């Protein structure tokens, strides 16, 4: 066949299930001059979904029409700088949708799974971690044990939601709406939780914990140090991106492994942490940094620094995005662990070819490209609802808006 | 077809031309269970050619037999650590031969040129630099002008060989054999050369210079500073790998762009230079660091640090190695310039599919894989001569053995 | 007599015993124009033995023929730089064989043991450490006690092999062959082992432990800190050479003494550790860094930095190499401890003049040179088997190739 | 023969010539139980000659009697720490006398020149520099040219003595006795001198200059920078040992090569300069740092840092000390240049076996040990005069005591 060119680019939005504000997925489809030859990429940004669609359809599409889809390195850079102001959420998500679709396409052109293009597998599967929650230590313990029985080896334990969301934090007079929580109480409860878990479950499972940036800096340092005896696999987002310099202080105080990055949107955020070897796991949200092209590079840079990957894998990543995660996981020597939210039956029907989990590991399939498709008709039946999220309206007990 | 497995691995040695000690080329051929499906990689180490062959044939071959050739990341690491002591010349060259061959194979399996697997082209061709020599400034000038007339934009200017090799440096009583040169005289002559070139040719051509590590550290600093007004494109190997800490002093004293790395054999040599942003171009010898897999990663790490690539491309790299250089050049965003030695007619006949130079640029061809083959029958007609090189037996005027 | 010149150089390979892949010894013999006057040096690189032989016989030999064997400093540098790419395994081992042989020769010419040439003894014997292994803490304890009863004062305690090799680490689907081990489990078991040993044996013996680079960086830091209360004499190879920058973090967190270096192959690997005073013991493999000439210099440089020596002394060093270790040990003011593998009866017969161990100490003999010979006829009866090692094909539970 | 033991140790003092305060030489003789077997070492400290004799005869001798002279490393350390307060002038000179004598002895026992024990020659001869003085630039030029005609390639140019000693610096009322000089005038005159020399003689000779620590720090920086265009081989003692931190400022400002160290008496003085790569040549006075044992180590440490040696070699070093310098010079890979004062006919008669200068190089002889003897009867005819030096009573124009 002739060299295919790009014939169309568009964003597909869907909210599988009840049409949840928290699950507005965006997939970009890049179609070529070759009938039936297209690629898919994840551009999901649940909180600002329609802005991403606008960037894809109005700004990236015209730059891509008629171009050679195989020149990914060239197109990525071309799209990246085209708005002059570059990177950041919205634009990175849009770019990611295109970029992953181009890798998917390249795999299909090669007749090879994307992990082959990235160097081939260097492990059989990607170890995953699941999320065990509960109101009290005993309930968390029960949920941890349930996952252990399923063969999982890495489990994130949380109590009362991130930072005690929904907790009965006392509210001041005239309190505004929002999800109030008490950072101090949260910090204390976490230590109590892990005291319980290590005492009852022992050390033969890897435990993780996500602070979700809900502490002031010195409290974050204190918590990281307090959790040192509990031998966490990692402590996640212990500081907000606005206060990354405090990681140095944590490093001086303890050996608790640190994971950071799901909110990062450009390299100036991770550079000092990498160059100072101040974290142990990079866990960017791949579609928030622009797709597989920058993620693959970031994995390589982290390998240089002795830092492992733990890409963000929450429920509001589309299955296409999860597939991309897993392809990168199995081909990166410095892969650490993969967050795993699981797919509903509807999602698996809507996105044929979802990566599968067996025992402790997730596995990509071996079809060309990312190995995943989208049933557009089915997707269209679940349109995204309009509106803004509630949980990102968070306040501390005195009514101060806080990091969610 | 079934997934191919590795059926054989062997080193092909040849010395196209008169059988020169300085041109003992090594190409590794990885054959698969699929008839006619094989990959080629460059393992050339002219100075210790037969030791590389032993590593390939006796140690890497048994580790590779029956394995899946597509798991490059896995196989690279497996071979890399198998000898326990890792990296270094000889073993890295052997590993490179296998690694490039696996990339060549993967390209053939995909039906795509290797540059496509690396992300696709982000430029049309790779700007090259050529080497202009001469005994006096006027002769160098004439040779520079000759290259300019051929359309070249980057030219490395040397006078009297590296460090004035073959010069009439005074010798002490009882002088041992070897190529005597005088570092001080060399340093002074270089400034004189570039005074002449800039005065006669002007600034509309990029000039480079290679010190070939032939100065003591403070003299290297002094020369880099003295050449600051001559606006070199870069100054190459101004210090030996044994004294890389002195790059910091050069950085404090001047803005002459610095290229380094052809002698590096593992990451601990380039790490401090990259992390300190102490050089501007990385120019490792790709087969000396273990092939495309580490070179691709090194290019990515350099992109993080704002450093460009200028891979080593002398006459004693096989055409297969030159092809690998060019595939990487056209797909690396932070490519700088490519050293170019050119191919003899015999080399082009022996290695069908050599990359071509047109005007200022080198171009890979678009055939699957590295796009280059070897005529084994022809290669066998030019066996490698035995013996050791003379130019690497270098001494300073008082008879001290020096870096060659 | 006239000044002797070098008349021949060759590698002698032997595998005393059953012809083990793990015991392919290489000794270099440098013969002179003076009948019966020759020197011996260790060039052993078990994993790539035949490549070392090629370098010795084909490349170093022609450079040495007819030269003055007493100019060691000159010849070392001349051989070192002759391949242009220098250092690294294979070439350093070959160079070491020649270098030690030249020191052995110089001792014979002087009629003095090599330790006399190095400045003479500054202690009576070299304290050694032995290796006590076991599947459970009680078994390790029993083996430690056995060595204590033999008078030893330094004992390295390991449980389940390095990193738990051979353990029943769970394997993923489709697991490739290799020695699977679980780094996390290993790290936890080490602390348990030393809890037991210190509780049962007390503090009157110096305990050591070798991590064998089998942990990711932050886990290495955590282990070093966890072992601080156990007062190790040193913790060995807690990080791989690829991640030496993390030693700084260990230093910030604890006072566990650190030994490093058996895998180092050139100065850029140890420089930052020495200059930062980040380790306490240098334990290079002398034949892997090029012989006594660089080792003597490295010992001196370490003395400057307040760092002690603990040269690598495993079973796959030839008795000639062990002799060289001990000569250096007794004449270096900053000697720390010597790893000791012991010699079989066959080895003692094949290499007359092996250094001896009495009580806690090893002693060189007082014959001229290194004081050790080789029975070439006997050696020839035990040819080296071909093949590659299995234990260096190591994987973590998910199938990732790991540092062996 | 049996192992010899030390039978006697004594200091020999002599002032060959007119009995000059500036030439009170001290040689230590270590005699052994073997008749006729003895060693000689230089302990010269002209300014405190008799104190050195007291240390040798009253304190070191009893520690040495009956000991094995071959255990140099042991004895050096034993003597070094015996006074509890260690190092420093007087004690280091005495220790040096013993230490060099032990190396001389070891060479005689081995039947080898000392350079053989140090690793053998790595060059044919040691390039020397001579001292050209004069009242005006033209006179200095004439003296420089005279040396050039003798074949010398390195010449130190001074005008009006160190710091303009003997100059007509204006003196204040009531001026005390002493050698007045004007640092500012000196600094300006030096630039004028090198303007003249480079203009008249050109660049084909290496010029050196000695500031003799006679400038305040910022003036030293200014001078080093002002001399950058004159391309000195090195600028010597530009700062006093009391102000070594200012070397960093010089390094930030210019590339003038720096030599330092003749006044250093222990490692804490040179450590920061070496570790910061702040100087280019170490030029300690070997007998002031304790002899060949520490000098050999210091040379090795400097090799690590890329720094060359230029051992102090003034007229008030005994020929035995000069011989030791040259033995070390020809066997140190990182030798730079050797200061050379030359010997009178009387000195050559009194010390048979002085090293010789031919063309640009000094050569040790090839006799066992240091190859030099002392005619004690002749030496006794030239007893050392008592008294204190005049030139070390130096003042600046306002009468302030200054560094001499």
Question: How would you describe this protein?
Answer:
4 copies of one chain form a homotetramer. Chain A is an alpha/beta fold. The first copy, chain A, has 2 domains: 6-113, Enolase-like, N-terminal domain (Enolase-like, domain 1, 2-Layer Sandwich), CATH 3.30.390.10; 116-366, Alpha-Beta Barrel (TIM Barrel), CATH 3.20.20. Chain A is 37% helix and 15% strand. Chain A has 14 helices and 15 strands. Chain A has helices at residues 49-64, 72-81, 91-110, 114-117, 137-149, 183-201, 217-226, 247-253, 267-275, 286-289, 292-305, 319-331, 345-350, 376-380, and strands spanning 6-14, 25-32, 38-42, 126-132, 154-157, 179-180, 206-210, 234-236, 258-260, 281-282, 308-309, 338-339, 356-358, 361-363, 394-395. In chain A, the strands form 3 sheets. In chain A, strands 4, 5, 7, 8, 9, 10, 11, 12, 13 and 14 form a 10-stranded mixed β-sheet that branches. A 3-stranded antiparallel β-sheet of chain A has the order 1-2-3. The first copy, chain A, has a two-stranded parallel ribbon with strand order 6-15. In chain A, α2 packs antiparallel against α3 (91-110) and α7 runs parallel beside α8 (247-253). The longest helix of chain A is centred in the N-terminal third of the chain and has 20 residues, at 91-110. Chain A is globular. The N and C termini of chain A lie far apart (51 Å). The interface between B and C is large, with 52 and 52 residues.
